[in-house]
Design goal:
Blueprint (H helix, E strand, L loop, with lengths): L12 H28 L6 E5 L14 E5 L9 E5 L5 E11 L4 E6 L11 E2 L3 E9 L2 H9 L1 H28 L1
Antiparallel strand pairs: 1-2, 2-7, 3-4, 3-7, 4-5, 5-6
Helix pairs in contact: 1-2, 1-3, 2-3
Length: 176
């Protein structure tokens, strides 16, 4: 008695593309969610993330980039630091000069794209950390994925692709 071996149907080119896009969407969704969660819990980690919202550090750090910073025991000239200004706004600029004592330094800072240094010195107590890594343009995606339309897109596109993939499989089985 011969048994018929069941063959796994070959995936069409379109189904392969659907699978790739679906996996990319899932990876982006998980990455955006993880980065958003990490950013929301900055005080629980040694590293903090920030979205750059102005062009004051261009071309070194562009608008829409995400920076990862870490508190350092000391800072030197040319370090790019993130600090709170007198109005409690978060700023990321480069140290031009260190003034004061080594135990109580004050930093003269300036954005790379700015014409002149910042008007106020930054005390060590106001420094959040040094920029240690930049992720280009990911901030736009993270912000979009947190919006109403971003959430809808992150749910609807993968769901639509899964439904389309299943319909193609059913159509292929019916045709065989």
């Amino acid at each position: 008695m011969t048994q018929k071996r069941s063959r796994k149907p070959k995936k069409s080119f379109f189904q392969i593309i659907i699978s790739i896009v679906l996996y990319l969407f899932v990876a982006v969704f998980i990455g955006s969610f993880a980065l958003g969660t990490w950013s929301a819990n900055n005080d629980k980690f040694d590293y903090q993330t920030y979205l750059i919202q102005s062009g004051s550090m261009e071309p070194t750090i562009m608008t829409g980039d995400i920076i990862i910073i870490q508190d350092q025991p000391n800072y030197v000239e040319r370090d790019v630091i993130t600090f709170l200004d007198d109005e409690n706004r978060t700023i990321t600029h480069r140290i031009l000069e260190i003034k004061g004592s080594q135990s109580q330094p004050d930093f003269l800072t300036k954005g790379d794209a700015n014409q002149s240094p910042d008007p106020d010195l930054v005390s060590l107590a106001k420094v959040q950390g040094k920029v240690i890594f930049t992720i280009p343009k990911l901030g736009y995606l993270v912000n979009f994925s947190k919006s109403k339309w971003g959430i809808i897109l992150m749910i609807m596109v993968p769901a639509g692709l899964i439904i389309l993939d299943e319909l193609l499989k059913i159509g292929q089985e019916v045709a065989d």
